[in-house]
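Table S2 (text version). Query chain:
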Amino acid sequence: MAPERRAGFPRVRGAQDALGGVVVAVVAAAVLLVLSRMSVASYSAFSPALFPRICAWGLLLGGLLLVARGFLKDGPGLERVPLRPALFVTLAILVFGIVTPVAGYAVAGLLTVVIGGLATPEMRPRELAIVSLALIAGSVGLFSFVLKLSIPILILPGVRF
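Corresponding structure-token output:
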């Protein structure tokens, strides 16, 4: 005989998906709230707030889909969160937000990738340096030269690139 089902909320079948989706959706909503204070001229012309806003909407949608999946499909339960990755990834995000207005996004991005790379014990310094430099070169090329965004690449005393 099948167990009785209680009225009210449906049963969570995949707790990791459901909780992960809630976290992603909350972070995306917080980003959208912060970005709502920045003006966007139009969706036909790029502004510095447009791309982060599009990404945040995508994350919000993805988070809501993960929550739905947690209720619809069987999945793993909750496990302990490893502390090292959580700390280093959070630190990398904070460093990016703090360093970008002071030193430019090239320096902030480099620090972010290096700090994020320290989140795994399998990190190899040489590979991390190569990947970091390649990612920063790619982001400078994309954001500054292709998209022509007006965010500073590098800020030195008295000089802004």
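Notes on Table S2: The mean pLDDT is 88. Strands lie at 155-156, 159-160.
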